[in-house]
Amino acid sequence: MEPILEPGSMVGVLGGGQLGAMFTGAARRMGYRVAVWDPDSDAPAHRIADRSFSTSFADHDTRERFVDSVQALTLEWENIPVELCQWLEQRRPLRPSSAVLRTLQDRLTQKQFLSSCSIPVPDFAEVQSVHQLHHAIKRLGLPLICKTAKSGYDGKGQWLIRQPSEIPQFEQILSTPSFGVRWIAEQVVTFVRELSVLVVRSGNGETRVYPVVENR
Known about the structure:
Elements: E1 10-14, H1 18-29, E2 33-37, E3 51-53, H2 60-68, E4 72-75, H3 82-89, E5 94-95, H4 98-104, H5 107-116, E6 124-127, H6 130-140, E7 144-148, E8 158-161, H7 167-174, E9 183-187, E10 194-196, E11 199-201, E12 207-209, E13 213-215
């Protein structure tokens, strides 16, 4: 059985933004101590953490001091270097694991994984060239939303193509060698409301499902 992390233990959080601050506050109310590592010295979680680290995620000295100060680790969000997480999880329990993180970081990999589990997703296509864009438009139709496969969040890294006259602008982006990113094209989903369900699983395989909530 995986040991239970008792209150008073130090939990490490990679990322100190709004979600990291919410996690830190909740953990401290439960009696845990929290160490936050976020390169942004102004990240809100730094202000309420028991320990703070604000150097680059590439800093080897910091990763040694960070992992030595905690008993377990978690992630605020998915845009954390996988290589760093692989190194950390060899020394402390990391949830979710680097393998899960690698899937979460790439929208194409996400969609392919969900599809392999027979979970319905909007129809999608990989787009790395103008030719692939035209093929995606022919297959998926318009309107079409194109998203960067990695690093996009809160609407960033997205391009909505509503009508044919808007296609040349996105073709220009795809034709820019310096841009160098992979895109995923998806059917636009018209939805009435957005719902979330939080499911958690312990290291011993025990699963809990929290109530459905509506996002507004």
